[in-house]
Records
---
Amino acid sequence: MEDLAGKVAVVTGGASGIGRGICRRLAAAGLDVAVADIDADGACAVAAELRESGVRALGLAVDVGDRESVIALADRTVAELGGVHVVCNNAGVIVGGALCDATEDDWRWVLSVNLGGVVNGCTVFAPRLIEQGQGGQIVNTASVGGLLAGPGLSLYCTSKFAVVGLSQSLRAELAPHSIGVSTLCPAAVRTKLIDADRNRPGELAQAGGGAEMMRAAVESGIDPDVVGDCVVRGIRSDAAYIFTHPSYRDVFDGHFQSVLAAFDT
Ligand SMILES: NC(=O)c1ccc[n+]([C@@H]2O[C@H](COP(=O)([O-])OP(=O)(O)OC[C@H]3O[C@@H](n4cnc5c(N)ncnc54)[C@H](O)[C@@H]3O)[C@@H](O)[C@H]2O)c1
């Protein structure tokens, strides 16, 4: 999608961190934006900031793990902004710690938001993009943890590996409709991700793990607006993967060399 001005975007998890950075950079590129988040006040505050830059913007409440809520988000976006062309399925949470310490509630919460949110976003919005017949772009937020796994991140990486797989399949399915699918794979970004528990539902409160071990890395991460710039470039070029940390090239090189070496054993 080269021509972005006047198009409409929806961004989940738009109230904070990477989602807010994406919203800010999409608005700077001239898109109208539906800022959607479980934190409705935060979404409205970001939308108000975007309106000051001259675009139309809505702050909307959504729980991405709840399909009905995502359908309502799509309905309102189309009704109030006149269509939808860019969908950023970005809302996410983290639970760290050893697999053996994770509770059933940990699994349900992480998979419901990180994977269920992307499933709902894709299955609700993709048919509308197809029906609209104007092409478009879906950007699913995974992580470098969607391609590389390490200790203490089994729940998170399970959800993010699944997002990578879903996105690759969907990219091939939607290409004939001129709808691109990009997988966003950031490393550390300075956001509130480590305090994701602030949005944890009461019925899934039994926690076995925590994400404190990741705090120092996240707090020393890159600015979320830089990720927003990468996303806008990725949308313009229909990038299959959007990487934000060039220094990870060597890490990936080592990883995939070891995968290829397994063919020789
Ligand atoms: N920060 C990093 O280092 C990093 C690295 C790689 C990937 N990511 C991914 O980036 C995405 C954004 O996270 P962030 O780092 O900006 O964290 P963040 O906590 O600053 O923002 C996440 C947003 O998602 C919202 N949210 C949580 N649960 C929700 C739900 N059920 N429905 C709707 N909204 C919900 C939160 O209210 C928040 O506004 C996540 O998918 C995360 O996994 C982050």
---
Amino acid sequence: MHYFPIHYNEPLFRPPAEAYSVIFQITLGCSWNKCTFCEMYQSKKFRVRKTDEVFPEIETMADFNPGVKRIFLADGNAFVLSAEKLIPYLDKINQHFKGLQRISSYALPSDILAKSSEELIEIRNKGLKLLYIGIESGDNDVLKMIHKSETHESMTQGILKAQAAGFDTSIMILNGLGGKKYSRQHALNSAKIINAINPKFLSTLTLSFPHGSEHFKEKLNEDFQALSVKELFEELKIFIENIDTTNVIFRSNHVSNNINLNGTLSKDKEALLETLARAIAQTPEGIMPPDYGFL
Ligand code: SF4
């Protein structure tokens, strides 16, 4: 039987790019846990794990594989921990893994804004270099509808503050999140925030319904009409058309996506738009994505 030294508190999520990273759960669940579209941590009550619980896992993993290169700190937004609580974990990790390239975690912009610039620099200098931030949309109507607890302005401010402290950021946008009503403004304002922050990595996922679209609609205060596959492509095209950045590594290759795109913005922008234009031309009207989906 395959042996692995850590027993995780399931469900456990990590970004696709962390597929080969060692994961330590320093928090369980999401401290916010109220976004209407998100079912990831509905089964978990948020809590911070004690160092007494996590340190033995770090020690055991270091014995098992001292050559670890990348570490991801879970769960939902491990970066919610204050600098005072986060730094002991980073020190412990650095003490045991000498060849580390980077540590990363999910973060909410409010988690960043809650820390001083000096604290952010200290955390960054201790190896936590990359923050994954699911901003979902740059549009305030959409953010309000999905109960995100952030605004275009708070997200811009938080991400710029992290980048000024030396963090790389990986930003996620959710294609289709505004439905038909907000599709265009979702695309335009999401492009606007990407232009303002110029992240290192950008990815788009597609809104999906793990428990069915009716379950999702019940949680909204307004009527929601999901986009067809063709409309999802059109929204994505408007988003990319309006991005004006340099050297942003773009991926749209999550299992929820109906088309696989990747490139560097703005170098590959025209090629990406041509691919999308072909997909739009070849996709019949009215075909809906599956009503089930991926978390
Ligand atoms: S989308 Fe992120 S912030 Fe919102 S509930 Fe899910 S894990 Fe928490």
